[in-house]
Amino acid sequence: MTSPSRDPSTAKTLLRPTSGVIDGAIHRYPLRVYYEDTDAGGVVYHANYIRWFERARSDLLEVLGIDQRAALDSGEGLYTVAELAIRYLSPARLGDIVIVETAARDVGRVRCTLHQVAWRDGEKLAEATVKVGFISPEGRPRRQPEAWQRAFDAVVASAVPGTAPDQPHRFAAPGKAPGTEGQE
User: Fold this and answer.
1) Which UniProt keywords apply (predicted)?
2) Helix (H) or strand (E) run with residue 24 in it
């Protein structure tokens, strides 16, 4: 019998990290705060929120079936951050489970505006507005592939009125329905 770690057919499945999920128009990306994420004061170092937001955006593309590496290798281009504004509201600490939520706000032919929020147990930790542009391998603005724009448009179109990543997503305790925390 071959161990799963040595069997190439199962290794990719067993070792694949989560890319999060799309729920309506919001991509949710879970992560855990590790020692490496914290500063001397024991809270998450501010630059790590930007790193987490980048990971969530990259994994949103993965979930949408967008392969930036293949597009870059083929000479098509890739997304790049053109502008980022971030607000820090409350610190995360070692061991916390953080959910980064990402929602596309404005999808154009060349640009896309994304709103991202980091949550811990319903408490907003940080939020950012990120404007990305599609560029050629030479760094010039270029229209994003139509299939990519359609993928983003489909997510934006699935938005339920009144939902946004600025409202917390509550995870239910085992055996409880979402939104019933604290009710007996």
Assistant:
1) Hydrolase
2) none
Long-range contact pairs involving 36-42 (C-beta distance under 8 Å, separation at least 24):
37/92, 37/94, 38/93, 38/94, 42/93, 42/94
CA 60/CA 152 separation, integer angstroms: 10
**Strand-by-strand arrangement of the 26-32 sheet:** 21-23, 26-32, 97-107, 111-120, 123-135, 78-88
- Per-residue pLDDT 10s for the chain (184 aa) are 555 556 655 555 555 668 899 988 899 999 999 999 999 999 999 999 999 999 999 999 999 999 989 998 999 999 999 999 999 999 999 999 999 999 998 899 999 999 999 999 999 999 999 999 999 999 999 999 999 999 988 888 876 555 555 554 433 333 333 343 444 4
* Catalytic residue (one of 7, 23, 37, 39): 39
Query: What superfamily would CATH give domain 28-157?
Result: Hotdog Thioesterase (3.10.129.10)
Structure tokens given for 69:
């590496």
Active site residue 166: no
Q: pTM of the predicted model, to two decimals?
A: 0.79
